[in-house]
Amino acid sequence: MSIKTIAKDRLGPSLKPMLIMLAIVSVVFAGLYGFVAFRSMMIAQFLASMSNPPQTVSVTTAKLEEWRPTLSAIGTFRAVSGADLALEASGVVEKILFQSGEDVAAGQVLLELRKDTDRSRLESLKATAELNEINLRRDQAQLKLKAVSQATVDSDLANLKSAKAEVAQQEAVIAQKTLRAPFAGRLGIRSVDLGQYLGAGTVIVTLQALDPLYLDFVLPQQTLNGLEVGQSVSAAVDAFPGRSFVGKITAINAKVDLASRNVQVRATFANADRKLRPGMFASIEVATGKSERLVTLPQTAIVHAPYGASVFLAQKGAPAGDAANPGDGDLVARQTFVQLGATRGDQVAVVNGLQPGAVVVTAGQMKLRNGAPLKIDKNPQPPVDPNPKPVDR
Q1: With contact defined as beta carbons under 8 Å apart, do 34 and 42 qualify?
Q2: Residue 269 has what pLDDT?
Q3: DSSP element (H, E) containing 384
Q4: Residue 356 three-state SS
């Protein structure tokens, strides 16, 4: 006999509805339990995602680049020969024999003052000197005949020397009223006019030798070990953006300044096209040491702290499809400490702690921590220039 037949016979028809009710209640409780469990899981996942949302960051790839140590400085161009021309004597301008901005040769006459009175005095002094010479010759002839004494001849000789000295002095006075170019170069803008009275020492025009030019600058005393005559120097000036002028170190000062502990350095630049001018301000780069290959990063990628410099790497973290970390390709942040070298414009060299090819966060580090999910910003990033030249607006 079957169990169903036995139950039917023993329990009777009154228990059948109860069994059906128990089955229905069990199904309802199972459904409620499943709904509550599913709801709890969804709430937990939602809270987890809200508490640790993916952070939007910009990244770059660390790469090896040629790196040669350089020293940066600022300096001023000056002429190898340059002077503000003036006269030692005073007087009225009679002739101006140059044009502003003209190239002149050494010894070329530039300006003359009025000399009429000085020339007349010179002629008078020459006449006196000639008379003294005649008297000397006559008395020398008389001395041979014992007609005059030796004292008379000596007096005549002294008078002649004095007269000739006065003639030479007057010729020098006249020469001081003529301005000549002391060296070849380019004139500036004249500051005097015809008929103008000039006092002694009044600046008439500037004269500058433009090829070559000196560039004077200073460097800290600790850089002396890497400096030597003949080193290459590159200079940039605001007047010619994007152009680099190249020269060589020609002199290093024999002493270090006691106040600043800096040493003065002078470089020489060829200037055949006359683009550079004395007085120009220049930004300078001096190449030192040997070139080497180093890992480079933008300076914005470095997180500086009292305990050292570090970077955040974008690495694979949570398993794919993890709803709690819906980052960009399941990337997470990993902080690593690095040892930095020299800087070059927007770049910094990393000498230890980072391998080429690592993906490094360059913007958004302040909101990161280890394990934080990441979302990569796809917008173009600003260029990283080893030799930036900002525009002065």
Answers
A1: no
A2: 93
A3: none
A4: coil
* Res 325: pLDDT: 42
Structure tokens at 390: 């900002």
Residue 259 in tokens: 């106040």
Please give the structure tokens belonging to residue 207. 């004269």
- The pLDDT score that the predictor gives to residue 387 is 59
Helices marked H in the chain: 3-11, 16-51, 116-144, 150-175
Q: What is the identity of the amino acid at 168?
A: A
Q: Phi and psi of 168, rounded to 5°? A: -65, -40
Instruction: Return the structure tokens found at 10.
Output: 């023993």
Question: What is the C-alpha to C-alpha distance for residues 85 and 179, in angstroms, rounded to an integer?
Answer: 8
Within 8 A by CB and 6+ apart from 45, the residues are: 323, 324
Q: According to the model, what pLDDT value does residue 319 have? A: 43
Beta pairing class for 232-236 and 245-256: antiparallel
Cis amide prior to 373 (ω within 30 degrees):
no
Cβ pair 55, 374 in contact under 8 A: yes
Angle at 256 between CA 253 and CA 260, to 5 degrees: 125
Angle between helices 150-175 and 116-144 (to 10 degrees): 160
Which region among 100-104, 315-319, 344-348, 355-359 has the lowest average model confidence (pLDDT)? Answer: 315-319
Provide the phi-psi class of 258: left if phi over 0, else alpha when psi is between -120 and 50, else beta: alpha
Collapsed DSSP state (helix, strand, coil) of residue 349: strand
3-class secondary-structure state, position 262 = strand
pLDDT digits (tens, 9 = 90+) for 255-307: 998 998 899 999 999 988 888 899 899 988 887 767 778 888 888 888 888 88
Instruction: Identify the three-state secondary structure at position 93.
Output: strand
- The pLDDT score that the predictor gives to residue 39 is 65
pLDDT tens-digit map of 134-165: 888 887 888 788 877 888 888 878 988 888 89
For the full predicted model, state whether its pTM sits above 0.85. no
Q: What share of the chain is helix, strand, coil (3-state, %, to 5)?
A: 30, 35, 35
